[in-house]
Design brief:
- The protein has 316 residues and is an alpha/beta fold.
- It folds into two domains: 30 residues, no CATH class; 281 residues, Rossmann fold (3-Layer(aba) Sandwich).
- It contains seven helices and eleven strands.
- The strands form two sheets. An eight-stranded mixed sheet has the order 4-5-7-6-8-9-10-11, with helices on both faces. Strands 1-2-3 form a three-stranded antiparallel sheet, with helices on one face.
- Helix 2 packs across helix 4.
- The model has no long low-confidence stretch (mean pLDDT 96).
């Protein structure tokens, strides 16, 4: 049989990878243009961070901001199992417009390189480079939105699903290495984060096919380099690293019907018990599934979660 037609791995409805190495993305490929959002008035634009790798991001600036007004900076990291979506995906573009408008913040949504062409830890390295770029431009430009409006004392990370996973690891790396000009991240928001482990817990045990599929998926994402108990996917197994989180506070959100919900709760509990000196908050949404807020963004529950995020950003 033609290897170009033989499936090696499939993420149903989203992604197919063939034995020939051919990649077929069924979701997350649509890109919407930047500009002025008619609903929020937020202005967005595309920027290149690294020409050689193609690393890029979208910047979002609230409407009507005075030239000397400093704003919180939110580095947003999209989800998609490390294999689909970009900052230009319709759901993420809309969500970042809403975040920028509601939190009155400069949002930088990074398009990190995706697996399998660029397997983990490339996504971590790209996001770290984006954070470096933010800090440098806040200090001396040339990006005017950051130079004029970015507040280095109020940098936040936020990510959903795989993006939440990435946000955690960037916060740990910041705590280990630091960045010149930025002493500490203000906060990190992990929205329905993608964490797992070798041994099923809680409701995961009721679905016998779930664990093998999660193991296959993670192996595909990282090229088989890291097992299911590696800190990249199972940070709760390395609680000593939690003490290195380079931020003041963490917000974890979970959705009741989400297969990752158990792990999100354990993450928050592990962080509270780790000896880390910051604040931990857990926001739970009943009756909803994984990243529901991307599609039900104007629903009561999504608005309540957005309120929690805005309060987390702007409380001081």
């Amino acid at each position: 049989m033609d290897p170009d037609a033989q499936l090696h791995y499939e993420f149903p409805g989203s992604f197919r990878y063939y034995k020939s190495g051919r990649v077929e993305r069924l979701d997350g490929t649509e890109v919407v243009p930047t500009g002025t959002d008619p609903t929020t008035g937020v202005i967005s634009k595309e920027v290149t961070i690294n020409q050689s790798t193609g690393l890029s991001a979208r910047l979002y600036l609230p409407n009507g901001i005075k030239s000397d007004k400093k704003l919180p900076i939110l580095l947003f990291i999209h989800g998609g199992a490390f294999i689909i979506h970009t900052a230009g995906s319709p759901a993420y573009h809309r969500y970042c417009n809403l975040l920028s408008a509601n939190a009155k913040s400069v949002v930088v949504s990074v398009s990190y390189r995706l697996a399998p062409e660029h397997r983990v830890p490339v996504a971590y390295d790209d996001t770290w480079e984006a954070l470096n770029w933010i800090v440098l431009n806040c200090k001396s430009g040339p990006e005017p939105w950051l130079a004029e409006h970015g507040d280095l004392a109020r940098i936040f990370l936020a990510g959903d699903s795989a993006g939440g996973n990435i946000a955690h690891h960037i916060a740990v790396r910041f705590g280990e290495e630091g960045l010149d000009g930025c002493s500490k991240l203000k906060g990190v928001m992990l929205l329905n984060p993608y964490f797992w482990g070798k041994d099923p817990i809680g409701n995961e045990k009721t679905n016998p096919g779930l664990q093998p599929w999660m193991e296959e998926t993670w192996s595909f994402i990282c090229g088989g380099k890291y097992d299911m108990n590696h800190q990249f996917v199972h940070p709760m197994g390395s609680p000593e690293l939690f003490t290195k989180l380079g931020c003041e506070r963490v917000l974890v959100t979970v959705a009741e019907l989400d297969l990752f919900a158990e792990r999100g709760r354990v993450y928050a509990d592990t962080l509270k018990k780790s000896g880390w000196g910051g604040e931990v908050a857990l926001h739970e949404t009943p009756g909803e599934d994984h990243v529901y807020f991307l599609t039900k963004f104007d629903g009561e529950k999504a608005l309540k979660e957005m309120e929690a995020m805005v309060a987390f950003i702007n409380r001081d």
